[in-house]
Amino acid sequence: MATSKLVSVIVPAYNHEKFIESCIESIVAQTYKKIELIIINDGSTDNTHGKIISLVEQYRKRFDNVVYITRENKGTAATLNELISLAKGEFIFQIASDDMAKPCAIKTLHAFMAHNRRYALVVGDNEIIDSANRRVYWDQDRNNVDDVSQAVYKTFVDFLQSRRKDFNFKSEQFGDLSTLLKGNYIPNGKMFRKSALLEVGGYMENTVEDWYINIQLARKFKLKYIDKPLLCYRWHSNNTIKNRAYMKKLAKNMKKVIASVDPDKSYISRIKRLFHRIIEKMNITKRLYQNRHNG
Question: 8 pairs with which residues across the strands?
C-alpha cells in the first residue's frame, strides 16, 4: 500500500532555539504515521542543541527512526546534502527549523507523489506566521499585519503569484524550466523523490540553494503545486532573505548557474533585475521600519 511507504523528514537546524520546538511538534502531529525524523544541528551558537535533545527523547517513540547529529557549522547546502544521504525513505519532506507543517501536509503530498512517478517535487501553499506562532498576513511591503482586512497578501503563494503573472501556479507550467530560469517561485515545505535529488547531484554550496535545486530538478522532471496551505512560513527579523550582503553574494553565483543551464544571456539580465528588486524591497522595508519607530 502507498500509505506504508516511509517518508523521511529532514530538518537543518541553525540558531532557532525559539522555534525548533514548534517545528518538531508539528511533525509529531502529522496524520501520516510512517515517518523518520532526521535533524542536523549545523553549529548553532544558541540553545538549539539542548532543545532538540529534549524533544528527541520525548517523542522518539512517535517515529520509525530518529537520527540527530550536532556538529560544527558547514552551511545550508552541505547540511541538506548530508541529511539527504541519511534518509531511508523513498520520499523526503524538507522543513526549515523555524517553520511548522500543517497536520495533513505529509499525507497530502505523499498521496500525490506515490501515484505520479514522473514528478520529483510537490509542494503546497504557505500560511504566514510571526515569531509567536500567530497567523498573520502581509501588507504591500511584506510587513506582518494581524487584520486580514489590511492584507494585500494572505498567503506566501498570493505574494509569489503576484510577482509571476506570466503563468498560473495551478497550471502545468508550474515548475517548467523556462519559468524557473526567470526567477524562483517555489514555496516552502517541499516533498522530494529521493532518487531524483540524487540523480541531479543534490544542492550546491554558495548558491540560492532552493532555487538551484528547483532548476536542476526541472531540467529532468515535473514539479507540482497543490493549492492548499500545507506549511506555516515564519516571517521574522532573522529570515535569511533579509540578509542583504548574503543575498548579493548568492545572486552573483546564481548568474553562473543560469548561464550554464541556458546560454541565452538575456536571462542574466533578468536575474540582475530580479535581485536588484529584492534588494530595493529590503531597503524600502528597512526605511519604513525606521520611520515608524523614529516617528
Answer: 36, 92
pLDDT in tens, 65-85: 999 999 999 999 999 999 999
SS3 content of the chain, % helix, strand, coil (to 5): 45, 20, 35
Model confidence at 2, in pLDDT bands (50, 70, 90)? very low
Angle (CA) 41-11-90 rounded to 5° is 130
Alpha-carbon distance of 218 to 215, in angstroms, equals 5
User: Is the separation of the CB atoms in 222 and 196 below 8 Å?
Assistant: no
Phi-psi region of 43 (alpha: psi -120 to 50; beta: other; left: phi over 0): left
Domain boundaries in the chain?
A: 2-294
Flag the least confident range among 160-164, 185-189, 208-212, 276-280. Answer: 276-280
The answer to whether residues 43 and 55 touch, using CB atoms and an 8 Å cutoff, is: no
CATH topology assigned to domain 2-294: Spore Coat Polysaccharide Biosynthesis Protein SpsA; Chain A (3.90.550)
Cβ–Cβ contacts within 10 Å for residue 64, how many? 14
C-alpha cell at 286: 528597512
DSSP 3-state assignment of 121? strand
pTM of the model as a whole: 0.85
Q: Which long-range contacts (CB under 8 A, 24 or more apart) does 267-270 make?
A: 267/181, 267/182, 270/181, 270/182, 270/183
d(CA 207, CA 200): 15
CA–CA separation, 97 and 209 (whole Å): 16
CB burial string 217-253: b at 16+ within 10 A, e below: bbeebbbbbbeebbbbbbbeeeeeeeeeeebeebbee
Residue 226 β-bridge partners:
124
Kindly state the greatest CA–CA separation across the chain. Answer: 61
